[in-house]
Amino acid sequence: MADDCLFCKIAAGEIPSDEVYSDEEFYAFRDINPGAPTHCLIVPRKHIARITEAGPEDEALLGRMFLRANAIAEAEGIVEPGFRYVINCNEDGGQTVYHIHLHILGGRALSWPPG
Ligand code: AMP
Ligand code: ZN
């Protein structure tokens, strides 16, 4: 747990959130400013500031994060119509919270490319 990290605090339950999934490794919740009808974030409880800081020791963790996200997408009913995963990195990538998180977006047709 990193000091002053919003998503560490949310995963620890120190800051309230709208939980969609929780286990010993991951926490998922609804984005406070949703960009689509379904907009969830899944975070590892382990603090990693940005995706490029993940190391070889995180390889399996990141794989499991996608499998948990798949289960969330299934539960949200967005798999068959279609959905999108997004990981933003650094300023030009639009990252605002420096604890890695996978956006799960769906519930409407999403445009491409992103702005
Ligand atoms: P990013 O811009 O990729 O770093 O994504 C950060 C996301 O976290 C944004 O979509 C925010 O709307 C969302 N967010 C920020 N604070 C909270 C919060 N307290 N609860 C839920 N989502 C949040
Ligand atoms: Zn953190």
Write a structural description.
It is a single chain. The protein has 115 residues and is α+β, with helices and mostly antiparallel strands. It has a single domain, classed as HIT family, subunit A, CATH 3.30.428. 24% of the residues lie in helices and 22% in strands. The chain contains three helices and five strands, in the order αβββαβαβ. Strands 1-2-3-5-4 form a five-stranded antiparallel β-sheet. Strand 1 and strand 2 form a beta hairpin. The chain starts with 5 loop residues before the first helix and ends in a 9-residue tail after the last strand. The protein binds adenosine monophosphate (AMP) and zinc ion (ZN). Adenosine monophosphate binds next to loops.
User: How would you describe the shape?
Assistant: globular
Instruction: State the CATH class.
Output: Alpha Beta
Main β-sheet: number of strands, strand sense, barrel status?
5 strands, antiparallel
**CATH topology category name:** HIT family, subunit A
Count of domains: 1
Number of strands: 5
- Mean pLDDT level: 97
Q: For the terminal residues, how far apart are their CA atoms?
A: 32 Å
Number of helices: 3
Beta percentage is 15-25%
In short:
The protein has 115 residues and is an alpha+beta fold. It is built from three helices and five strands; from the N terminus they run αβββαβαβ.
Main attributes of the structure:
single chain, about 120 residues, alpha+beta, HIT family, subunit A, five-stranded antiparallel sheet, about 25% helix, about 20% strand, globular, binds adenosine monophosphate, binds zinc ion
